């Protein structure tokens, strides 16, 4: 989208950025697992690999037909293909409501989990394996580097993320 001029600015994990355009990091975040407080299968504040694989998952995928897995799903493929995916959604903000009140779990960014934890009665747990942190970054087309409106927006985003 950036190459075709369909987007002025993109925000995405650092590893997905183009090497041909300017970029700047916005914030760093870690991954956690979330589950409903009512989930009887999880009594502790941690989750074993056995439970992680056994429980149903809400996962986030992108693309027109949700064929592009999010970072955590790509990472977890190295450990197992046995996860029970019950729900696929197109955005991380949709995952917590799809976990609330169910026996499903999801792996999401810590900031998002903390935002939803109290209002949806979610517990936050450490994943069963160490998932590398994500560095959310913004990127814009090189030809728009000096654009005053885009520069203002970039500065505003940096301030909000600080």
CATH-level-4 superfamily name of the largest domain: Periplasmic binding protein-like II
- Show unreliable segments: none
Return the CATH architecture of the largest domain: 3-Layer(aba) Sandwich
**Number of discrete domains:** 2
Largest sheet composition = 6 strands, mixed
CATH topology of the largest domain: D-Maltodextrin-Binding Protein, domain 2
> Structural class of the secondary elements?
alpha+beta
Q: What is the N-to-C succession of helices and strands?
A: EEEHEEHEHEHEEH
Q: Which word captures the global form?
A: elongated
The chain-level mean pLDDT equals 87
Describe the protein in words.
This protein is of the alpha+beta class and 162 residues long. The chain folds into 2 domains: 10-27 and 136-161, no CATH class; 31-132, D-Maltodextrin-Binding Protein, domain 2 (3-Layer(aba) Sandwich), CATH 3.40.190. Helices cover 26% and strands 29% of the residues. The chain has 5 helices and 9 strands. The chain has helices spanning 49-54, 71-76, 95-99, 110-120, 148-161; strands at 10-13, 23-29, 31-36, 56-62, 68-69, 84-89, 105-109, 122-125, 134-139. The radius of gyration is 17 Å and the shape is elongated. The protein starts with 9 loop residues before the first strand and ends with a helix.
Q: What descriptors fit this protein?
A:
162 residues, alpha+beta, D-Maltodextrin-Binding Protein, domain 2, 5 helices
């Amino acid at each position: 989208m950036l190459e075709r001029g369909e987007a002025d600015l993109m925000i995405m994990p650092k590893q997905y950025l183009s090497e041909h355009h300017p970029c700047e990091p916005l914030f760093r975040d870690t991954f956690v697992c979330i589950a409903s407080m009512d989930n009887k299968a999880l009594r502790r504040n941690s989750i074993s690999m056995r439970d992680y694989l056994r429980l149903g998952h809400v996962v986030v995928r992108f693309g027109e037909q949700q064929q592009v897995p999010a970072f955590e799903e790509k990472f977890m493929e190295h450990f197992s293909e046995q996860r029970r995916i019950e729900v696929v959604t197109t955005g991380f903000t949709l995952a917590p409501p799809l976990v609330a009140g169910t026996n499903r779990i999801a792996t999401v960014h810590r900031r998002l989990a903390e935002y939803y934890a109290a209002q949806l009665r979610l517990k936050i747990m450490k994943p069963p394996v160490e998932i590398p942190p994500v560095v959310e970054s913004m990127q814009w087309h090189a030809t728009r580097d000096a654009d005053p409106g885009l520069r203002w927006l970039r500065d505003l985003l940096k301030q909000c993320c600080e």
